[in-house]
Amino acid sequence: MLRYATRRFLGALPTLFILIALAFFLIRVAPGGPFDSEKALLPEVEANLRAAYNLDEPLHQQFARYVWGLAQADFGPSFQYRDYTVTELIMTGFPVSLRLGGMAITLALLVGVTAGSLAALRQNTRTDYAVMSASMTGISIPNFVMAPLLILIFAVYLGWLPAGGLGDGSPRNMVLPVIALALPQIAYISRLTRGSMIEVLRSNFIRTARAQGLPMHKIVLRHALKPALLPVVSYLGPATAAVITGSVVIEQIFGVPGLGRFFVQGALNRDYTLVMGVVVFYGVLIIAFNLLVDLAYAWLDPKVKYS
Amino acid sequence: MIASAQAVQGQEEVAGRSLWVDAWRTLRKNRAATVSGIVIGIMAVLVVVGPWFSPYSYDFTDWSNLSIGPSLETGHLFGTDTLGRDLFVRTLYGGRISLMVGLSATLVSLLIGISYGAVAGYFGGRLDNLMMRIVDILYAMPFMFFVILLMVFFGRNLFLIFVALGAIIWLDMARIVRGQTLSLKHREFVEAARAQGVGTFAVIRRHIVPNLLGVVAVYVTLTIPQVILMESFLSFLGLGVQEPMTSWGALVKDGSDEMQSSPWLLLFPAVFLAMTLFCFNFLGDGMRDALDPKDR
Fold first, then answer.
1. Record: contact B145-A15, CB cut-off 8 A
2. pLDDT higher than 80, residue A46
3. Which pLDDT score is estimated for B14?
4. Per-residue confidence at A107, pLDDT binned at 50, 70, 90?
5. DSSP A59-105
6. CB half-sphere exposure, A149, CA atoms < 13 A
7. A-chain residues within 8 Å CB-CB of B142?
8. CA B61 to chain centre
9. Which residues contact A91 (CB under 8 A, 6 or more apart)?
10. Which residue has the higher pLDDT, A172 or B272?
11. B264-291 and A143-150 are packed helices; what angle lies between their axes, rounded to 10 degrees?
12. Each residue of A237-264: pLDDT tens digit?
């Protein structure tokens, strides 16, 4: 297992390197520099600025400096928020985003697995059709469409929940953003669970368990659930990526002060280092999470060999 | 599969038993997929033809009817936005852009995905390993963020959107095509062609690719809604199509800004967008059942 983990970890390194390289060079080829302003700067001033940010060094040296900084969790200074480093900005936004995303994934897993299993157990009944149509609808309605609709219904017309912001930090403020973020994932997870659960329920060991007279709920919980969840586990990697991406718009719509909002603001303000920092940060997060999912899968699935 | 594959070439003689005819029959029996296909057809005709029959253009301001709700009397079927522009025409124009982006980016992904996947699968060995390793690496990138960066750095033009989205989405296509090619290349008809001295690329083009089309058709149907979704996402963030042109994503964004005072601005584009995605997904599912029986 340890050898397998090491091998997977080493396999993730090139991905990581390419991510950083892509981010770094993309920013260098971008037209317009961070010091472009309405007034042209004096040449000496600009030269001094470039020197201060090490932009006058040869490219490979800058790249090495950037990677070295990243290794120490230093994403460089922000060009727009002059008094902050990018690392500081990320650290103010990330906890909020993490809470939002974490709750959304948890909710999606709970609801998705339950609904999918129910649909599988009652295959081709009304319950099944209801769950599957709901899930198709969930997949088809993007979360940036769902979010304003939720606000319109639950905040504007019914007035049950706040429309946005974190307010006094009470959980009420998180309800709508979490639901909006979780809905498409609930839809995917319930479809996945249904499919694999149907397959597992047809297999021999389940038939044996039923022949022995075990009650259905015990069969599902003790025997069927674990193998049926394997595809869901492997979907968790893409799900995380989707939640992180979705979080960008959801935070924007609900005015949640998370990392996604910094990203959009940074992109619109051409705050290159901030935007780049967020991309690299999220990229590393996604790569690390995929690695964890791979390991969890190998651990859960007896068919995977550690060679 | 082999019989049906040969039937693709000689459709006249064995009319009625080819893969496509079989698939067409199965698909027709699936009512949800049929209805979805018809709705997509109507939608396509509507967004292309509809604007010609409307007295308003997408950027015309009707000063006497700013922000009015849907009504027949004023001639604004879906109402107007805060600038007095007719929402019906704008929704159709937005649909043109959304569908066009969906189709073009899918085409880009199709071209890259099929050639890449077929080459990797057909040659196999070290080349295949290397090519698929590259796909694996690219797969793990947070590409949506890179597209956003591209939009920020190089301005928001439509052509860049096609290319950028197409360049992301080919990865799935390449994987699927490679898998199919691996199973096709040891078939008798491919060996027969090779034994007759047909060149490598001719074999790929004439014998491998035509037999991939079934699976590819399924994935095209499932890729289009994904691309439409991505374009809408970009437009929603203000990084896609620029004013006064519009797309469904941009309309949803405008609508959600005004939803308290004029909810129709949100509802109509949202319904069009969701309905289109819904139908494409249903059609894709139906086609998968019809063309890829092994999958179920």
1. no
2. no
3. 47
4. very high
5. HHHHHHHHHHHHHTT---B-SSSTTSBHHHHHHHHHHHHHHHHHHHH
6. 17
7. 19, 241, 244-245, 279, 282-283, 286
8. 32
9. none
10. B272
11. 140
12. 888 888 888 888 888 888 888 888 788 7
- Judged by phi (left if over 0) then psi (alpha if -120 to 50, else beta), residue A76 lies in left
Please state, rounded to an integer, the average pLDDT across all residues of chain A: 81
Contact B233 A144 (CB under 8 A): yes
* Structure-block tokens of residue B178: 């490679």
CA atoms within 13 A on the CB side of A156: 14
Q: Is A278 on the interface with B (CB under 8 A)?
A: yes
Q: pLDDT tens for residues A124-170?
A: 888 888 888 888 888 888 888 888 888 888 877 787 777 776 666 66
Lowest mean pLDDT, pick from A70-79, B34-43, B97-106, B266-275: A70-79
Which chain B residues have a beta carbon less than 8 Å from that of A253? 256
Domain residue extents for chain B: 22-56+74-295
3-state SS, one letter per residue, for A2-41: HHHHHHHHHHHHHHHHHHHHHHHHHHHHCCCCCCCCCCCC
Q: What angle, rounded to 10 degrees, do the helices at B31-49 and B264-291 form?
A: 130
Going by C-alpha positions, the residue among B174, B197, B184, B194 that lies closest to residue B128 is B174
Pick one of 1.10.3720.10, 1.25.10.10, 2.60.120.280, 3.60.40.10 as the CATH number of A92-260: 1.10.3720.10
CA distance B192 to A208: 48
A85 - beta bridge partners?
A: A77
Alpha helices (runs of H) in chain A, residue ranges in sequence order: 2-29, 43-52, 59-71, 86-121, 126-140, 143-150, 172-201, 204-211, 216-218, 225-228, 230-254, 259-268, 272-300
Residues 116-155 of A with CB under 8 A from B: 136-137, 139-142, 144-145, 147-149, 151-152
B7 pLDDT band, cuts 50/70/90, is very low
| CA torsion through residues A143, B106, B140, A294, sign | positive
Q: Residue B80 pairs with which residues in a beta bridge?
A: B86
Q: Scanning the structure block, which residue is given the tokens 């950027």? A: B59
Cα A300–chain centre separation: 22
pLDDT at B55: 74
Complex ipTM: 0.76
What is the rounded distance in angstroms from the CA atom of residue A219 to the CA atom of residue B226? 37
pLDDT digits (tens, 9 = 90+) for A5-24: 888 788 788 888 888 888 77
CATH architecture, range B22-56+74-295: Orthogonal Bundle (1.10)
Task: Look at B246 and B66; give whichever has higher pLDDT.
Answer: B246
Amino acid at A90: I
The answer on pLDDT for B267 being more than 70 is yes
- Please give the pLDDT value at position A169: 64
Single-letter residue type at B246 = T
Higher pLDDT: B3 or A83? It is A83
Mutation target among A20, A28, A133, A144 for the B interface, most CBs of B within 10 A: A144
Q: How far apart are CA A194 and CA A235, in angstroms?
A: 14
CB contact A15 to B (< 8 Å): yes
How far is Cα B275 from Cα A302, in angstroms, rounded to an integer? Answer: 42
**Closest-CA residue to A287 (of B128, B113, B143):** B143
